[in-house]
Amino acid sequence: MRIDLKDPGLFERDEFGEVLAWLRANEPVYWHEEPDGPGFWVLTRYADVVHVYGDDDLFSSRQGMRLDSSPEAVEAVAGRMLIVTDPPDHTQLRQVVGRAFGRSAMPRIEAVVSRVAATVVAEAVEQGEVDFLDVAKKIPNHVVCELMGLPREHWEWVGDTTTEAFDAQADEDRVAAYGELFLLFTELLMERREHPGDDFISMIAQARQRERGGVDGRELTDEEVIVNCNGVLAGANETTRYSMAGAVLELLRDPAHWHWLRAAGPTGIASAVEEILRFTCPGVHALRTVTRPTTIGGVPIAAGDRVTIWNSSANRDETVFFDPDRFRPDRTPNKHVTFGAGRHFCIGARVARLELTAFLTELLSRVDRIESAGEPRYNSSNFTWGLRTLPVRLVPATAGA
User: Fold this and answer.
1) Which is one Pfam family of this protein (predicted)?
2) Helix residue spans in 168-220 (DSSP H)
């Protein structure tokens, strides 16, 4: 089998799952050559993926966490942005950023999520025929923008620019998009320092002051606040929409799932959310750099080697998940790694689950059935992957149904 996990066409054609399945069965620790780079290891089995996530001393995030990151861009934020730090920097940053998603913040977050989901789904149902990606992207984007206190007139621009920063093929386009976002957050941070509110940016700015003399005696810099605001924005916008759209596609493919969900109620929705996350797995891979010689699956790995862990493959590991290539909304237990694991477990996981739950609840209450209105198409990214277009008709539920 031809193995090229950097081939955009493999993902655009939705053929990468077959490659990962072959690797799981035949070469679960695989050395992947690169014509334009040093090469990297590919880990496809659940146990190996969890092992790497669980040892951030041996497998460092500081040298980057995706295959196509430019070394210059990584170096600019390494040790400052949560996703490209190791302890002890990671510990302090996570404590500060995590406060915005802690238990005390949940009532406000839940209220925002419920209101946004109701509004967006109602508008889509009224429209009738839609590209569901246009619907799905609004929910996480509107939620995170409101929680951050971003001016309403910036929301669509922020969503589009975040996508450009993640998905642009050319390094210069990605750098330019990130630069525009950093400038916006710089301006907002200065403003919130003068006039704080109850939004995410204000909380991070205030937490910076409270952390003075904290865990390691170092306060967060303005740059750390700005790049982590950008990291939260990107993580919120670029993953949940793919899970929502992927869920609609599975409900469209098998109406039995739709009928089961309508009958199952909140418990069914809760299990369906976890299965949607496992099955769609928008965060396809993560990168780590080995800090000292080790072995994985009996294969020697050298210090300095890059190791990629393929979440989407771990979520289809036959030794962990029964009938893994089938979407089963009643699946339990469901110990997927869609949010990662260990210290780098996604800080926004709780919000993503809230968004998916509110989205499904609104969809089931407002829609009688979903019909296809065109062919689904996928993006070409091997990092954050999912549908880029999904034309559907939403047939509204009748009153009292």
Assistant:
1) p450
2) 171-194, 200-210
